[in-house]
Design brief:
385 residues, alpha/beta, D-Maltodextrin-Binding Protein, domain 2, 2 domains, twelve-stranded mixed beta sheet, 15 strands, globular
């Protein structure tokens, strides 16, 4: 999915290339490749200061989640057979795939199944293992998300493949100035169908997101597999399409800020930084529930397991650290953080202080069979014509 391509306001303490510690090659290292803007620099500094031993930390930010997934793929690619012919086979130490250059990598939950199937990553621990001391602090929902079998599907008897450290959701964001004259603000997906919103809405250019919100309006799941058995689904989609001015997964905020559109559906990682800068914008998590995403720490295949990377994961799950990550990167935390009004700007509270009832109705976009994915894509293309 092409989400979260532009991230986070300049107020975030972003990592450009943080290197803590110095020393020779024999010094213990922790190398992390992470999504840019997803971890504040001061959090890394605090982790380094709290370590008992001399350690070199190398945190390298990468712009997009898709690039991180492709990096995992590149590390596991074996040389072409032609490369192993002739003089090249005599080069010392040149065998097998390229070694991974990081102990931990950020991965979005959307890519977790593919990473497991393609053997790009290895489990963090067995279920019931005690390497991750803070594992028990996670809500069962987060444990379920990352506990999977070797095919990458949810399995309570599987292994733990990822460590969620922040999350967000799909939200409705609107221009207060434009809706003030109408006398209402959006509260749920059904508001997208109001007559006065015709040609004033932008939606994400994503079949799972758009069809999913219609399914949610109809009381169904985002992960519904038999679309042809959902009454009125296509009719509702056609009606919604008449409301839409354009579809975009990248450029939906600028028209909203300018007033060219009045309402948009977008990802909280894009929307929250904009709320902090543009007071004319408001946002709401739909009461029927919404789609959720999570950023995870994963361990590349072939990397030797070490206690230092586990220490980093546990550090991210400490309540005080989790709160810093949430507040400074404008995201939600899988750990209870007790964020209050004084911690963050008022416009952001409605998104960062999740209503438990809405949270329970919300869903991760789980892997679907290829044939079902084609159904979503085909129906989405049909209604946009």
């Amino acid at each position: 999915m092409d989400r979260r391509y532009f991230l986070l306001s300049t107020s975030t303490l972003a990592l450009s290339q943080l290197l803590f510690g110095c020393g020779g090659n024999k010094q213990t290292q922790l190398k992390v490749q992470l999504l840019k803007g997803s971890i504040p620099g001061q959090v890394v500094n605090q982790f380094h200061n709290g370590l008992q031993q001399q350690v070199q930390l190398k945190f390298s930010p990468v712009e997009q989640l898709q690039d991180l997934f492709q990096q995992l793929q590149n590390w596991q690619q074996k040389p072409k057979s032609t490369d192993e012919q002739g003089w090249s086979r005599f080069i010392p130490f040149r065998q097998g795939q390229k070694a991974a250059e990081a102990d931990l990598v950020t991965l979005g939950d959307y890519w977790l199944k593919a990473a497991i199937e393609q053997k790009l990553i290895q489990p963090l621990q067995e279920v019931g293992g005690n390497q991750l001391k803070q594992w028990s602090a996670l809500d069962e929902r987060w444990k379920k998300l990352v506990t999977r079998n070797d095919q990458g599907n949810l399995d309570t008897q599987g292994k733990v493949w990822g460590a969620p450290y922040r999350w967000g959701s799909t939200v409705i964001v609107y221009n207060r100035d434009k809706l003030r004259n109408l006398g209402w603000i959006p509260k749920d997906w059904s508001d997208l169908w109001r007559d006065e919103m015709q040609q004033h809405i932008s939606l994400l250019n994503q079949p799972r997101e758009v069809i999913g919100l219609v399914l949610k309006k109809l009381g169904k799941s985002y992960n519904t597999e038999n679309l042809d058995q959902v009454p009125d689904l296509e009719k509702e989609l056609q009606t919604l399409n008449q409301q839409v001015k354009f579809y975009s997964s990248n450029n939906y905020l600028e028209p909203l800020i300018m007033g060219d559109t009045w309402l948009a559906v977008g990802w909280s990682s894009d929307v929250l930084p904009a709320l902090a800068r543009y007071p004319q914008l408001g946002a709401v998590i739909p009461q029927s529930g919404t789609a959720m995403w999570a950023d995870l720490w994963v361990r590349p295949a072939g990397i030797t397991k070490d206690t230092l990377s586990d220490q980093w994961i546990d550090f991210c799950w400490k309540p005080s650290t989790a709160k810093q990550i949430s507040v400074l990167t404008k995201s939600n935390s899988p750990i209870s953080t007790n964020i209050v009004t004084s911690d963050i700007q008022e416009p952001l509270l409605s998104i960062l202080q999740s209503d438990r009832n809405i949270f329970n109705k919300s869903e991760f976009l789980l892997p679907l069979p290829p044939s079902v994915i084609k159904q979503y894509e085909s129906l989405f293309a049909k209604i946009k014509v």
